[in-house]
């Protein structure tokens, strides 16, 4: 189905959410149509953030907003759905558009499998009526469902469209770029040249995939790395837990700007604990690149100053490899909590692979290395 027709049937003039590759057609349409126009479209830090933002829109206008997300974001909306939107509380109607990763019977990555299995059940548990949109769904069928949903929305309940792979299409092209020159994959190669045998916890998405392939290219073991293939925004908290309990090891966290924004409160906890053996690297390309390249707000805020305000002992930003190498060595030799923002370009190799080891193997190898 053409995304233009999908949007027309939803008949809402306000969208907010977190970009998803399954919803790339919708995200690109919204960017081409509205950009980041706060009156019509806001890319949120996380899905709970977007749900509350949608509630504010309804309170101010009386109209029905749309919240879009990957199904992994259902966990982030449970609290605001149950204690804010629910018809037993404030009865705020919202249309959720959810990309169905890990759909049963459709091959996907391990972090999506269980989430895919429980996607529909979680919506039922939250008392959200849902309809699955497939490649075969017609506009007439969708309009009929939307007519039924209008009656549900009038009662203050919420509804959801769960979008299967390839169900939405968009013919217009959109290219996401920034002005930085360093490539993330090269940045990661510079990082592991300095870290040596130190453990690394890497964030969700292409950063972990590039770290895995860099180890292969160097004929290095994968035991040094914990690849946080799911649970976006939590790699730095994992790293803190490791750093506190392995004070004799230098622990490195390779993070992303979208992940940092998603659960920024973790930086305050890290800064308060001040582990002197933790280096927190944020590769900032100002984009949700892994799911398509849609922008984050990380280009309009000062992450270094935020880190300092949270209590990081050292916080710097670099835009070239000379400065990166210098700060990596400083961090390696430092006995204080260190934060490095690395400004880099958007883009990756088209033939970028995925880890060939299982998540369980990754965990067991990493734990064995830490213990030994």
Let me know the average pLDDT: 96
Assembly state (oligomeric): single chain
* Total E-strand runs: 14
SSE string, helices as H and strands as E: HEHEHEHEHEHEHEHEHEHHEEEHEHEH
Widest beta sheet: strand line-up: 2-1-3-4-6-5
Percent strand: 15-25%
Number of helices: 14
Residues in helices, as a percent range: 40-55%
Computed Rg: 21 Å
Poorly predicted regions are none
Task: Write up this protein.
This protein has 372 residues and is an alpha/beta fold. The chain has 14 helices and 14 strands. A 6-stranded parallel beta sheet has the order 2-1-3-4-6-5, with helices on both faces. A 6-stranded parallel beta sheet has the order 8-7-9-10-14-13, with helices on both faces. The protein has a two-stranded antiparallel sheet with strand order 11-12. Strand 5, helix 6 (139-154) and strand 6 form a beta-alpha-beta unit. Helix 1 (3-10) packs parallel to helix 6 (139-154) and helix 11 crosses helix 12. The radius of gyration is 21 Å and the shape is elongated.
